[in-house]
Amino acid sequence: MRKLFFYFLLPLVGILFFTSCADDGENSGNAIPYVTVDFEDVTLHADSTLKDTSFISKNMTFVNVVNSWGFWSGFAASSRYDMTTAGYTNDLSVYAPTAASGKKYAVVYDNNAVCYFADNKEYVLQELKLNNSTYAYLSMKDGDAYAKKFEAGDWFKLTIYGYNSSNVKVDSLDYYLADFRDGKSFICNQWTSVQLGELGLINKLSFSFSSSDNGAWGMNTPAYVCIDDIKYILPQN
């Protein structure tokens, strides 16, 4: 398991990948071509959500599963930015005043959420941007009826797994959405770039959560994260 640290400034090689971005999410000119999955092509009104069906954005399918009881898991799309309302009724808002870019983003809920390339090909993913949901952020910051207020020693971790087109796991990365270990008091509260290049060529991603706050029914910390601007490199001729 490799540990992944976020960067606020892209290294020089990243600049070569990410310059010359066009309006449709693909770059142009002489730079290495890439696509940005920014969810702006998902049909969604302002201050609304899509949480009862799978959806596609820029050649990536984001799987949504609704069980026989009507509960969903996997991916939802959202354009909500309520940063003050605590609790599960506000589970599809990001703790930020906007999306990472544009007006829309995706919300990952529960373990083993899956997205994959619809053409069944493998690509190198360069990065994605993530942030806590408002529900998870305020739960960890203040506590609620189901989860504790985070204190020394607590943590909330996202693990991202990469799979090839044969559905074989290639590698995985960890990112701490909150970290109160070793004197820290960090809860992610802004869109943050996470580098994915070391996963190599992949066809599918899956997302899982773990936390220091657990009870008889499993993890108490709300199992949500918001993602946006997934960048993948197009093959060169």
Count of the domains: 1
- Strand count, sense and closure of the main sheet? 9 strands, antiparallel
Low-pLDDT sequence parts? 2-23
**Shape type:** globular
Question: How far do the termini sit from each other?
Answer: 33 Å
Oligomer: single chain
Chain-averaged pLDDT: 90
What would the CATH topology be? Jelly Rolls
Instruction: Classify the helix fraction into a percent range.
Output: under 10%
Q: In terms of topology, how is this protein built?
A:
Blueprint: E1 2-3, H1 12-18, E2 34-37, E3 49-50, E4 55-57, E5 60-62, E6 64-66, E7 72-78, E8 105-109, E9 113-117, E10 123-131, H2 134-142, E11 155-163, E12 169-179, E13 186-187, E14 192-195, E15 201-202, E16 204-211, E17 214-215, E18 218-219, E19 224-233
Parallel strand pairs: 1-12
Antiparallel strand pairs: 2-19, 3-7, 4-5, 5-9, 6-7, 7-8, 8-19, 9-16, 10-14, 10-15, 10-19, 11-12, 11-16, 12-13, 17-18
Task: Write up this protein.
- With 237 residues, the chain is mostly beta strands.
- The chain has one domain: Sandwich (Jelly Rolls).
- It is built from 2 helices and 19 strands.
- It has helices spanning 12-18, 134-142; strands spanning 2-3, 34-37, 49-50, 55-57, 60-62, 64-66, 72-78, 105-109, 113-117, 123-131, 155-163, 169-179, 186-187, 192-195, 201-202, 204-211, 214-215, 218-219, 224-233.
- The strands form 3 sheets. Strands 2, 3, 6, 7, 8, 10, 14, 15 and 19 form a 9-stranded antiparallel β-sheet that branches. Strands 1, 4, 5, 9, 11, 12, 13 and 16 form an 8-stranded mixed β-sheet that branches.
- A hairpin with a 6-residue loop joins strand 12 and strand 13.
